[in-house]
Amino acid sequence: MTRRRWLLTTAVLLGLALSAGGARADGSEQATKARAMLDRVVAALKVDEHAALESFTKGTNGFADGDIYPFCARARSGWVVAHPSRLGENLATVSDMYGKLFGKEILNTAVVGEVKEIHYMWPKPGHKTPERKDTYYTKVDHLVCGVGYYP
Asked: Helix (H, G, I), strand (E, B), or coil: what is residue 85?
């Protein structure tokens, strides 16, 4: 195992250990999984940003769990640098079916060391009808990253 892969694996496992007790008050298993994944995203980015972004996009190293997956965009420009299907798009222009520019809101309100949550309407992968989607997000250095889930 290469040193880089070992460090990334260690960061993922550390994130799992640190977030094991972080269940939501409402008991939502999906929310708990998404929040734990965001913790692992932050840890992985701090170890090796390039390898982490690749894992997020490919859904490897535990960065995909059904319709729960991470995304990251450049904080200043909004360009998506990690996502399973929207790589290269601008997060600032993404809106839901009601015109809510949730991507712009995420970019404008993300803070290093603080996890925030946003709600919007978005279709589940493979479906056309939008449903409520919640996303935890934070800023990590020059990136804004999030993990969404369907409650």
From this structure: coil
**CA–CA gap between residue 15 and residue 73 (Å, rounded):** 21
Q: Which CATH superfamily is domain 3-149 in?
A: PAS domain (3.30.450.20)
* Measured distance CA(72)–CA(44) in Å, rounded: 12
List, for residues 46-59, the tens digit of each pLDDT value. 999 999 999 999 99
E-strand ranges in the chain read 70-74, 80-82, 116-123, 130-140, 143-149
The per-residue DSSP string of 118-141 comes to: EEEEEEPTT--SEEEEEEEEEEET
Round to whole Å and give the CA distance between 151 and 140: 25
pLDDT in tens, 90-121: 999 999 999 999 999 999 999 999 999 999 99
- What does the block give as tokens for 32? 């708990």
The tokens 């995203």 sit on which residue? 41
Q: Residue 68 has which token pair?
A: 């729960």
Task: State the average pLDDT for the chain.
Answer: 87
Would you say the C-alpha torsion 59, 62, 63, 67 has a positive or negative sign? positive
